[in-house]
Structures are given as structure tokens and as C-alpha cells.
Hints:
GO terms for molecular function: GTP binding; GTPase activity; translation initiation factor activity. The chain is α+β, with helices and mostly antiparallel strands. 33% of the residues lie in helices and 29% in strands.
Amino acid sequence: xxxxxxxxxxxxxxxxxxxxQLRALSCRRACGAQWKPVQAPAHPVCPVLLHPQPWQRxxxxxxxxxxxxxxxxxxxxxxxxxxxxxxxxxxEIRQRMTIEELARAMGKDIEHIYxxxxxxxxxxxxxxxxxxxxxxxxxxxxxxxxMKYKSAKLKEEKERKNTDAVKPPADPAVLTPRPPVVTIxxxxxxxKTTLLDSLRKTQVAxxxxxxxxxxxxAFLVHMPxxxxxxxxxxxGHAAFSAMRARGTNVTDIVILVVAAEDGVMQQxxxxxxxxxxxxxxxxxxxxxxxxxxxxPEKVKKELLAHDVVCEEFGGDVQAVNISALKGENLxxxxxxxxxxxxxxxxxxxxxxxxxxxVIEARKDRGKGPLTTAIIQRxxxxxxxxxxxxxxxxxxxxMFDENGKAVDAASxxxxxEIMGWKDVPSAGDEILEVESEQRAHEVVDWRxxxxxQEKLKKDVEVIEARQKEHRVEYEQKQQQLAHLTWRQRKAVxxxxxxHQMFQRPTERREIDENTLSIIVKGDVDGSVEAILNILDSxxxxxxxxxxxxxxxxxxxxxxxxxxxxxxxxVIYGFSVNAxxxxxxxxxxxxxxxxxxxxxxxxxxDLKEELTSRLPPALVETTVGEASVLDTFSVTVxxxxxxxxxxxVQKGLLDRRMKFKLxxxxxxxxxxxxSSLKHHKNDVQVIKTGMDCGLSLDKNxxxxxxxxxxxxxEKEVQQTTSWDPGF
Length: 725
């Protein structure tokens, strides 16, 4: 009994000692003073009953002690504020997080996140590390991982102030007359460029690839009477519809060129529609009237069906018969244009901030980004700071249509501008701003606004897709409703576990039947036209078309590397590839296809698509026979159905394939097990001969069945894509 009491007392002593050490440590942290233990006298009866205050403090002045305690407490408080307390197993989450961000916050790898998503309605095939997850799924993943979550405190983003450039209203008192901007529209090869060539006495048509205008040309023409007219020559080819629309939107008058021998064509109708949409008046120029087969009256009557009524039929459209090649009646056409411009009373403010429109944009190796623009307000000079789209420029040099440097450009004058930081898009509005700092503000705002708009659209697409997958998920759950929850989890796990061990890039199917292309063009409008053609591609079931990159400028080594990554083909339009780039492409086996005429590029693309298609099996009939009688023969213990046939056409060759047709339906395909003429085995039965045959399958014949002998040949398929020209 006494021994048990002693053991209990010893245990209490050890516990008391541990408690005293803990209390001493706590006191040190709280006060910051120096402490040391002092041995207290033992109790005379029981050594366990120690002195209740075994610690004594070194002697310190009360003032010094208070100061020491105060400083220590303040310093310790700062440390506590700086240190972020993170509880074990607690994850800080936001309403929207990418898979990569969530994995990092949880301290897990990405595969862990995919595994947790196996049992949800999320489509794993569409997920990438940068895919966005939303609140419900994020919380579920954290909980399934045995962790707790807490919401991160979000700073409320203040509504950003709109710092975009604005157009001040024009003062009517300072408006002065300006040259008219005239766009020449019409069908391809109806003589638009030849007409403009005759007006400005230069050889543009001979310089065009294939005699076809490939992008917009803007020219200022000085008339003998002293008048100035700015002409825009737009492409008539079907591929350049967007260019024609852009040219029409900045113009005052449209000259519609129609060939007298061809009449109204597809792009003629489209040009009329562009002019109507823009609300621009028309002048009809009936070209090639010097040809014997020319019929101007027929052209005028055909145009009546499209609401283009000439003056002689009671309408308001002037019609001029011309020959652009011989220069006949060109001054009559110019006078009609000047007369119409006077009626329109075209005026502009030449004193305010510059406004204009980008007609065409390109990147020059020596000059950098260049734009062809029409000035619509103000006077453009060197040093002006301009903004267009999401880029800006400090004007370094300006050139006219002949490449000569000019010092100023007033309203209605076309000019090429040098000094852009990046290539703007054709059709962008040009606005002058006060300084480079202001230009940065405008570009930053436009970039921000575009990002917000894109984010809004992305969220709508994601929500629609999530809704679609949720419906599919609920349907699957209903199909598994009769199972217990353990059985359901097991079924879902077995169905999706193979995706756990694949990386996102591996989960995406790499279809061999895919053509990846890179498109490079000389100017923005050319690239735009090519992309518009590619948008019409509708044969994804035959071969997928993937545009991995597009841009302006010559073919570069970066394009080669990108094409190698995607096993793609590079298409260049009016651009070049230097010797080192071609050598690198040959080394890596990359195709570079350069063209100067757009329809040849499209034909080349169609051939490349065709080459990616698998060969098709085509059946060629060799012979046909009809079943006249049926019977069976015994071979061992089996009865084999036999058909008595007569060859009606061609021949039956036992080495080829056969099919059995009954009432127009094919009910069997395969090979013959035997072919006999009388009682002899034969290889071939010709027209008019009788035979007996049996199939490699135990199938009953009927009188009147047809036996067709055929051979299969592989034939190269051709893409069914029709780009429209």
C-alpha cells in the first residue's frame, strides 16, 4: 500500500516539474525578462509539497521592467501581424480558380484534381491545367481530399474610368470643300484597274499578279480642270468581299464598272448591295464598248432587276459608255463624278484633330508597320500622335501613292503613314491624341475593354457547356438510380479511371485526318480575305482544318518551328521566304507554299486536303448471275445449300468477292466455297453458262436471287469543299 502511494507521489512530482517548466517558458515570452529557477525548501513531511512560488525574478528597476515589457510586447505584436496563420488542412479558395491554381493551393499535383473530378458532371476530355473551375466543384474537390476550405477575401475592384479617345463635334463655320473619295467596284476582270490606270497614266494593271487586283489601292488623281479626286481600287475577286465593303464605307461616290460584253455578274450584284448598304450614290461605267460584241443597252436593262435605274429610264444613275483600254470617254466620266460631288457638297474641317480610316495595313522589312489611310478631318503632319485600334503611332514619315515623302495630308487625301508601334487592322478608325501618354491610356483602355468583353463571352460559353454536361450527368445518374451509392461510384470509377493516368494533352485526340496550316500575307486585308474563305470550310467530317497561326510579313523561323510542332503546312500570299528559312524547312520536312494569286492558293489548299483523305473502296461489277434452282448436297454430316445459276452478264471468277442480293437488298458478302460447271470444279464461268455454287456461309438460297461478282479498288477521294469560286 505504501509502495503504491510512493509511486503515485513520484508521478505527481514529474507532472509538477513539467508544468513549472511550461509556466516559466510562458513567462519569458510574455515579459521578455531574465528568469532563473530557485530551489525552494522541501516540506518537512512530504517532499512532493513544494514551495508554491519556485521562481524568483532578478532584481530590476520597475521603470526599466515596464519599458522592457512594453517594447517586447509591441515588437511581438508586429511579428504576429506579419505572420499569416495557416491551419493544417485548410485551403483558401476563390469563386473561380484554374485547375493549376487549385492544385497549388491544396499542395497537390494536377492528377489529384482530375481524380477528384471523376465522379462529377465535368467533361474531363475538355479540361486543361488552365481550365476554370467554379465554386461548387472547387468546394467538392477540397472536401473529397479531406480538407477544409475558406473563402479568400477579395478586393473590390473599382469601376475603371473610360479613357478612350473621343471625336469632338465639327464646327460648321470652319468647314471647307474637300476632294471626293470615289471607289471603283465591279466584277473581276471587268477593267477597274485599267480604268484607274488610264486616269492616272501609270501601269498598275501590268504589275498585278495575274492581272487581278489583290488589295486596295488608294490614289489621288489631278484632273485637267484642276479638280482632285481620290480613287480607291478594290479587288473584284469573290474572296475580297470584306475589302469591297470596307472601301465602300469610307467613300462618297461609287463608280460601278460593268463589261459591255459580259453584263451583270456575281460581284457586280454584290457591289451594288455594298453601295446600297453604305447609302452611297452610283455612277455606271459601261466598259469595253470598243469590242464588237459589246451591248450597253443590255447591261442597263439587266441592272433594272437590281434597282439600278439609269437616267434614260427615268432614274438618277448616270451611265457613261467608256473604253478604259483606249481611253475613250474618260473625261466624260470624270466630269460626271465632279458634278455629282458638287451636288453632294462635300466639306470637312481641316484645322481640328486628325481623323481618318485605315484602308490597308502591312509590315515592311525596312520601314516597319505601314498603313494606307484616308484623312477625313484635320491635317496630318509629322510628329502627330495617332491611335488606331489597340496600337498607336508617332508619325515619322508620310508617302503619297508614288512613294514620295509628303509633309502634310488634308481631308480626302490618301497617304501612307510610317511610325506605328504595331500593325493596326484594316478598317480601324484613326484618331489624333494630345501626347504619347494619352495614346498609352487609350490603348490600355481598349485592351482592357476587349478583355472584359472576351471574358464575358467566355463565361457565357462555359456556363452553356456546363449546363449541357450537367444534363448529361443527370441522365447518367438516372440510369444508375437502381444501384446503391457504392455500386454507382464503382461504375463511374471504372468508366473514367483510364483518364486519370493521362495528361491533358494526351487526352485530346490527335486526329491523323487533320490539316494544320499557318497563313502569312503581305497586308492585313489579304490575310482577312483568306481567313474569310477558310471560314466557309464545312467538310470537317472528311478532314479537319486547323488554323494554328496567321499574320503578316515574310515566312520566319518561328513559323517553321510552329509548323513542326503541329505537323502543319505554311501558306504564304505575296510574301517571301529567304534561303535560310527554306533550308530549315527542308531539313525539318515542312512544306512552304507561296502564291501571288488567291484562287491558286485555294486550289493548292484543296489539293492538300484531298491528299489527307483516306482512299475509298470502289466496287466494280465483274459479272452477274441469277438463281434458277436450289438444292443441297451432303458433305459429311452437314447439308450444304447449293444454287443453280446462269451467268447473265460478264463472268464469275471464284478468286474474287461475291454478294447475294434478294429483293434489292444485299444480304450477304463474302467468297464462294465451291464453283462447278456440271460436275467439274472451275475458276471462271462466262456469260450464258450454267453453274452450281455454294457460299462460305451456310445460307439458304431463293429462286430469283442475284449473285454479283465484283472486285474492290482503292480510289483517292476528293474533298467536297466548295469555297465558291
